[in-house]
C-alpha cells in the first residue's frame, strides 16, 4: 500500500469523526457552541464501545494493528457504508469481512434508468443470489413468460435448469449456454455467500431435481461472463438478436443487464 498505513488509518478516522455531529450519537442532544467540527474523541469512543485512550492512539498512528472486532465497532460507530468499511479494514492491513447478503432493494436511480429505457432497451437487475429484482417493460415483454412461480420463480439459475419454455425462446444452443453460465454463476455466488441458506437450498434442490445441473456443476467453472450475443425466438416478433452487457454495482451486489437490439 502506498504511504504509511498507520497515518493513513489515523487520517481516515479523523476525517470521518470530523464529519459527524452530536445528532449521530444515539440519545445525544445537539450542542450549539462547539469550537471544533464533528464529535469529540470521547464521544466517538463511547459510541464504539472502546476506551478513549486506545481510540486516540489509533488516530495518532500509535496503535498499529487494531483487531477485527475494533474495526467492526468503528465501522458501526461512524457509520460507514460497506465500501468505506472495507477500506477501513484494508488500511489496518486486514481482509474486509464477507458480505452477508446482497442489498434487498434496487436503488431509486437504477429504477429510474429502467423506466427511462422502457420502450427502447430491455434491462434487468439481479442480485448476487441470481434473483431477478427488477426489469423494465421492454424486458418483461421479452422474458416475462420465462419466469415461473414458487420460491425460485425469479431465480436465473433455477429457471435455467427447470423452465420448460426456455428452449422455445433461446433454442437448444442458447439454452445450453445459459445452463453453463448459470452453474458457473451459482458457484461464484456460493463462494461469496457460503452460509446463505437460500443459495444452499437452491443448490440442494437443483442437485436432486436436475441431472443437467450436475453435469454442468462438475465442470467446476466460475462465472466470468460480462458480454454475450443472444438470439431469441419471440412468440409474436419472431427471431431477435441482442448484444448483452452486464454491469456490476459492488456496493449492493446488483447486476444490471442491458440487451441492445442488433440491427439486421
TrEMBL record:
SMART domains: HTH_XRE (SM00530). Signal peptide: none annotated. It comes from the Bacteria. Residues 38-85 form the HTH cro/C1-type domain. Residues 1-37 are annotated as: Disordered. It holds the Pfam family HTH_31. This is Helix-turn-helix transcriptional regulator. It comes from Pseudonocardia kongjuensis.
Amino acid at each position: 500500500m502506498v504511504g504509511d498505513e498507520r497515518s493513513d488509518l489515523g487520517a481516515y478516522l479523523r476525517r470521518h469523526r470530523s464529519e459527524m455531529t452530536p445528532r449521530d450519537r444515539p440519545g445525544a442532544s445537539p450542542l450549539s457552541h462547539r469550537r471544533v467540527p464533528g464529535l469529540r474523541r470521547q464521544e466517538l469512543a463511547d459510541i464504539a464501545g472502546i476506551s478513549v485512550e486506545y481510540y486516540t492512539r489509533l488516530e495518532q498512528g500509535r496503535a498499529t494493528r487494531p483487531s477485527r472486532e475494533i474495526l467492526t465497532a468503528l465501522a458501526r460507530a461512524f457509520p460507514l457504508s460497506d465500501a468505506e468499511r472495507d477500506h477501513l479494514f484494508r488500511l489496518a492491513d486486514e481482509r474486509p469481512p464477507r458480505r452477508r447478503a446482497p442489498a434487498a432493494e434496487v436503488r431509486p436511480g437504477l429504477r429510474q434508468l429502467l423506466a427511462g429505457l422502457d420502450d427502447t432497451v430491455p434491462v434487468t437487475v439481479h442480485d448476487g443470489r441470481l434473483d431477478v429484482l427488477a426489469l423494465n417493460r421492454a424486458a418483461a415483454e421479452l422474458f416475462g413468460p420465462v419466469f415461473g412461480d414458487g420460491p425460485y420463480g425469479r431465480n436465473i439459475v433455477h429457471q435455467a435448469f427447470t423452465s420448460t419454455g426456455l428452449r422455445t425462446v433461446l433454442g437448444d444452443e442458447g439454452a445450453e449456454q445459459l445452463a453453463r453460465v448459470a452453474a458457473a454463476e451459482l458457484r461464484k455466488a456460493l463462494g461469496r455467500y457460503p452460509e446463505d441458506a437460500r443459495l444452499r437450498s437452491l443448490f440442494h434442490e437443483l442437485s436432486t431435481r436436475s441431472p443437467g445441473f450436475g453435469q454442468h456443476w462438475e465442470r467446476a467453472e466460475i462465472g466470468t461472463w460480462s458480454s454475450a450475443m443472444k438470439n431469441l425466438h419471440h412468440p409474436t416478433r419472431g427471431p431477435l438478436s441482442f448484444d448483452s452487457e452486464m454491469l456490476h454495482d459492488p456496493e449492493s451486489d446488483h447486476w444490471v443487464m442491458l440487451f441492445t437490439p442488433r440491427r439486421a
